[in-house]
Amino acid sequence: MSLNFLFDGPDSAKTTLLLAHGAGGAMDSPAIQALTETLAGEGLRVARFEFSYMAVRRQGTRKPPPKAETLIPEYRAALTALRARGQIIIGGKSMGGRIASMIADETQADGLLCIGYPFHPVGKPEQLRTAHLKHLRKPTLIAQGTRDPFGTRDEVATYDLSPAIQILWMEDGDHDLRPRKSVSGFTIKNHLASLAREVREWTSRL
Asked: Which of 74, 112, 142, 143 has the fewest CB atoms lying closer than 10 Å?
């Protein structure tokens, strides 16, 4: 498997975030691009990579995303290939963060960052993807919109999650953390800026 990384932020940063994309969006999708630029603006080094099925899509072949579990070896390979110095945080957007959470405790990473964790499939709240989160030991930060259809604030409040997990709630945010300004008074720019500041402060405490 050939891995290509996209890097943002200072090379001299003490912290590197290794982020994988979600099931439907490439590593340079507008949502991930905006997230990455905001994180980099806080002095964090961000490394993005792409799973092979998404890379194939760039060649014109529309392949559906495989089961998340089958992508674990690719995430491990990316972490090995990164060879970052200093503090390393693994994670990603939606499915990317979920895959990272499956291997977090087996790695030397210093923490786990999930953006819009898919706690359950849309419209199927009974099909929880939380079993491994009960015993997670790695320090974890999950940024979640309060109206995310993959897990709202009311739903997540009922889950049995590890005390190692901290959830940063983005008011009125959807799965991309995007709020309705007319309802909440916030914009996606506001939420991303708040998230980036929190990530910087969180990594400094690890």
From this structure: 74
For residue 177, count CB atoms less than 10 angstroms from its CB and return exposed for 0-12, middle for 13-18, buried for 19 or more. buried
Q: Is 97 exposed, middle or buried (0-12, 13-18, 19+ CB in 10 A)?
A: buried
- Give the Cα separation of 195 and 170 in Å (integer): 8
- The domain that holds 88 is classified in CATH as 3.40.50.1820
Contact 164, 136 (CB under 8 A): yes
Outline where DSSP puts E strands in 116-197.
140-145, 165-170
The total number of structural domains that make up the chain: 1
| Short-list 151, 157, 3, 171, CA closest to 77 | 3
Confidence (pTM): 0.96
Q: What is the pLDDT of residues 136-182, one digit of tens each?
A: 999 999 999 999 999 999 999 999 999 999 999 999 999 999 999 99
Length of the chain: 206
155 domain-assigned: yes
Question: What is the distance between the alpha carbons of residues 106 and 82, in angstroms, rounded to a whole number?
Answer: 17
- pLDDT (tens digit per residue) in 78-126: 999 998 889 999 999 999 999 999 999 999 999 999 999 999 999 999 9
